[in-house]
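User: Could you go from structure to sequence for me? I need the amino acid at each position, not a summary. Structure tokens:
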């Protein structure tokens, strides 16, 4: 955060830059800053007059009342010929004017800083904001009133009153913010309000910089376990095989000048009739692509408990869970956007078509959470772009594909079914509105809604505009026939339960998995 001199001109900026800054480490903007004296140096007369005019505009109700009373007393003294009353009127009128001039000329040199702890929080969680004001001048300050600009979604704007701050002294105040919605929210700039001891005038000055609070989706820990039918080479089986075979996979190649003779592979040398050396190849990390359907028409409702937020939270939980298990994870949306990008990660090939898998788990997890914090509904009508991005960025049946989908019509269901060919294993979680009870969900699995659900006008599938394939009972069987492990979910359904089902096989019986 930058500092500002509470006179007519803000002080020069300082700190780690002039843009948004945030962090839980060193306090941002901790260097001192000195305000510029008004009407001195290179300040023009016009600027001086305009600043003084602004200062007079800061007269409080009390100051304006004193001016009015002084003017009325002076008029009455002139009409009645009372010199004593004229003295009283002049005193009443001059007092607020003197307060304005003194407050205008007073240079309180202060430095401000803000610290967020933490600067990235899940939804429904609190973050602590600590404000620090340092008096870097040789004179004590008067009464200071602080107000930090905070978006209304984070709560009311905090206001503080600071008593006299001694030279080289400091004051610290703190407040808490909380948001039920994802997003990136600016905090600041901090406003400093000065007032004279008589309350005749108030001047407001603002610091220039601000910090950013990132509210990421809520995540829940998923139970460990191997996904059903997960091909070796991309899961636990591949990791165990590599552990048995050793970290180095012996692949012989021809001897080159400078190769260490201790790496000569004599068995291959005898077979090929020339010197062959061992070529070390690191084992390939298991890969996973998390597909998030963000189409506006695919989700009903809005708010923290909507199906779309359930899908976003599920995608975040899945990404973090797989990163903890050692997967290289990337996020794909219906717009075709990949996170990390095609050129990111150590696994990205030279042509840039098959990359986008994160390398370092901590860095990739933070990047994915930041992306999901600001993801919004898209205007796409189809998942075609996601299919093309998936087809061009994989070479055959490669890796694990986990999709969080909204409502699908017949065309989109067929398109998602074709995505199964681009992955070694595919799991789909179909987000549905929280409108049916467990008994109704069983009825959908059996081929249709229950009698109680069919009589509710707000039940999914009862309206004339909802296609038959858009229901969990229509989408899930089609995807399962295509080889997906498809599970219906949505608000009110714990992702941990669905994940447990995908690892225990309770829903995959008869699917040939």
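Assistant: Here is the amino acid at each position, in order:
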């Amino acid at each position: 955060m930058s500092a500002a001199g509470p006179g007519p001109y803000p002080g020069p900026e300082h700190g780690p830059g002039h843009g948004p800054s945030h962090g839980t480490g060193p306090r941002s903007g901790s260097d001192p800053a000195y305000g510029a004296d008004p009407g001195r140096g290179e300040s023009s007369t016009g600027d001086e007059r305009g600043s003084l005019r602004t200062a007079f505009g800061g007269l409080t109700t009390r100051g304006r009342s004193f001016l009015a009373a002084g003017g009325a007393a002076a008029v009455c003294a002139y009409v009645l010929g009372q010199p004593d009353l004229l003295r009283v009127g002049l005193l009443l009128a001059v007092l607020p004017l003197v307060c304005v001039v003194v407050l205008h000329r007073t240079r309180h040199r202060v430095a401000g800083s803000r610290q967020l702890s933490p600067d990235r929080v899940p939804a429904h969680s609190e973050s602590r904001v600590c404000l620090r004001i340092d008096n870097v001048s040789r004179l004590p300050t008067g009464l200071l009133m602080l107000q930090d600009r905070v978006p209304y979604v984070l709560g009311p704007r905090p206001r503080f009153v600071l008593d006299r701050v001694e030279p080289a002294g400091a004051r610290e105040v703190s407040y808490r913010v909380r948001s039920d919605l994802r997003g990136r929210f600016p905090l600041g700039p901090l406003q400093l309000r000065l007032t004279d001891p008589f309350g005749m005038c108030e001047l407001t000055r603002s610091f220039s910089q601000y910090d950013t609070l990132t509210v990421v989706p809520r995540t829940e820990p998923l139970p460990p376990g191997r996904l059903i039918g997960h091909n070796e080479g991309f899961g636990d089986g591949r990791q165990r095989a590599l552990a048995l075979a050793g970290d180095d996979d012996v692949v012989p190649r021809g001897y080159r000048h400078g190769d260490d003779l201790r790496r000569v592979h004599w068995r291959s040398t005898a077979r090929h009739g020339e010197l062959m050396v061992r070529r070390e190849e690191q084992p390939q990390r298991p890969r996973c692509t998390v597909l998030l359907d963000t189409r506006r028409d695919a989700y009903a409702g809005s708010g923290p408990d909507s199906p779309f937020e359930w899908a976003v939270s599920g995608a975040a939980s899945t990404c973090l869970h797989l990163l903890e298990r050692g997967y290289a994870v990337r996020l794909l949306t219906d717009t075709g956007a990949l996170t990390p990008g095609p050129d990111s990660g150590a696994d990205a090939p030279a042509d840039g078509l098959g990359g986008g898998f994160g390398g370092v788990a901590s860095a990739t997890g933070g990047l994915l959470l930041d992306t999901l914090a600001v993801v919004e509904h898209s205007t796409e009508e189809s998942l075609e772009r996601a299919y093309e991005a998936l087809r061009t960025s994989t070479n055959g049946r490669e890796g694990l594909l986990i999709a969080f989908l909204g409502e699908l019509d017949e065309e989109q269901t067929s398109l998602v079914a074709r995505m199964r060919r681009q992955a070694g294993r595919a799991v789909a979680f179909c987000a549905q509105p929280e409108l049916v009870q467990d008994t109704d969900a069983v009825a959908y699995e059996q081929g249709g809604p229950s009698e109680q659900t069919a009589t509710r006008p707000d039940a999914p599938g009862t309206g004339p505009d909802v296609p038959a394939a858009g229901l969990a009972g229509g989408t899930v069987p089609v995807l399962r026939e295509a080889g997906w492990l498809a599970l219906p979910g949505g608000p009110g359904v714990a992702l941990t339960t669905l994940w447990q089902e995908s690892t225990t096989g309770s829903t995959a019986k008869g699917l040939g998995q």
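One structural detail worth keeping in mind: The mean pLDDT is 76.
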